[in-house]
């Protein structure tokens, strides 16, 4: 039986193997149902390719489904992620935007592979393996570095080889933030600024980011994520109120066994925040 999304858990930020998650969309949905998630969005990086499978699985499990995406963009030379919720995955301009981003992803992964090769690592092979994914990401390269014994962990792979200033760093050529927001809105979706506490900007910078995001048509801010420090949660709730952004909640789940990103498990929305669920036309 379908549970009311109000009474069950909500998770509006998840990944499947259509980008850098490890589960197939149907397996992700089965796990979500097992964890009493009643409202689930699939938000793969730069593709909605898994949404059809996830929708069918949600129907079978009695989970309400929200088709989504997490678009890569740039604001002041920083990579910013915009989650799009309840959009039409078949909207042609949205499809074209995703196709562009996936082409940029392939080029970037190949360029990183070349740089790693020049640094004496099996970069060409690592890039080839990553390029087997429909949406190749740096996480694929990082996992490859771990699998081949070059790094002890994904985090170490990023810190030693992939981050800015490291041998395998290639800047992301993503479209501007406002373009990503408009793309989501034109596809009938609701644009949500993802994991704002992760961007390395000053608090004044974050205010300016939110003002521009709102002006471009952004409607929501992720304010409840697993493992968020209480002072971050308070700060983001204040910003959501100031910029009249609805509050979204999501785990950013990628794979089972990563306890700091548990599917469907995190704090409730703070007080006096409009729940993003009210904006999704459910
Ligand atoms: Mn990811
Ligand atoms: Mn992200
Ligand atoms: Mn994500």
Approximate helicity band:
25-40%
Query: Structural class from helices and strands?
Result: alpha/beta
The biggest beta sheet is recorded as:
7 strands, mixed
Radius of gyration: 18 Å
Mean pLDDT metric: 93
Please mark out the parts with pLDDT under 50 across 5 or more consecutive residues, or reply none. 1-6
Highlighted features:
seven-stranded mixed sheet, 39% helix, disordered N terminus, binds manganese (II) ion, 9 helices, TIM Barrel
Structure summary:
Helices cover 39% and strands 15% of the residues. It is α/β, with parallel strands linked by helices.
Would you write up a description of this structure?
This protein has two domains: 5-97 and 177-279, Metal-dependent hydrolases (TIM Barrel); 105-162, no CATH class. The chain has helices spanning 25-34, 51-61, 92-118, 123-130, 138-147, 154-162, 177-186, 203-215, 230-242, and strands spanning 9-11, 37-42, 64-75, 78-85, 190-193, 220-224, 246-249. β2, α2 (51-61) and β3 (64-75) form a beta-alpha-beta unit. The protein is 39% helix and 15% strand. The chain has 282 residues and is an alpha/beta fold. The model is unreliable at 1-6 (pLDDT under 50). Strands 1-2-3-4-5-6-7 form a seven-stranded mixed beta sheet. The chain has nine helices and seven strands, in the order βαβαββαααααβαβαβ. The structure holds manganese (II) ion (3 copies). One manganese (II) ion binds at residues 70, 81, 194-195.
């Amino acid at each position: 039986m379908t549970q009311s999304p109000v009474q069950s858990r909500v998770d509006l930020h998840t990944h499947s193997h259509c980008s850098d998650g490890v589960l197939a969309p149907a397996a992700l949905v089965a796990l979500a149902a097992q964890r009493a998630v009643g409202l689930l969005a699939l938000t793969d990086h730069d593709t909605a390719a898994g949404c059809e499978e996830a929708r069918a699985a949600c129907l079978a499990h009695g989970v309400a489904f929200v088709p989504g995406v997490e678009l890569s963009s740039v604001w002041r030379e920083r990579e910013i992620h915009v989650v799009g919720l309840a959009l039409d995955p078949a909207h042609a301009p949205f499809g074209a935007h995703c196709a562009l981003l996936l082409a940029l992803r392939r080029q970037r992964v190949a360029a990183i592979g070349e740089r790693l090769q020049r640094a004496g690592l099996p970069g060409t092979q690592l890039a080839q393996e990553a390029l087997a994914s429909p949406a190749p990401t740096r996480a694929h390269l990082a996992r490859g570095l771990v699998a081949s014994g070059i790094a002890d962990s994904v985090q170490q792979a990023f810190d030693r080889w992939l981050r800015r200033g490291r041998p395998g760093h290639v800047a992301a050529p993503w479209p501007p933030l406002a373009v990503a927001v408009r793309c989501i809105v034109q596809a009938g979706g609701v644009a949500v600024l993802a994991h704002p506490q992760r961007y390395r900007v000053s608090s004044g910078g974050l205010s300016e980011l939110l003002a521009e995001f709102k002006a471009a048509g952004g409607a929501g801010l992720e304010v409840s994520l697993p493992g968020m420090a209480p002072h971050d949660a308070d700060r983001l709730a204040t910003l959501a109120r100031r910029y009249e952004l609805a509050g979204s909640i999501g785990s950013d789940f990628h794979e089972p066994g990563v306890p700091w990103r548990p599917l469907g498990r995190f704090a409730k929305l703070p007080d006096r925040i409009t729940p993003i669920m009210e904006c999704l036309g459910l």
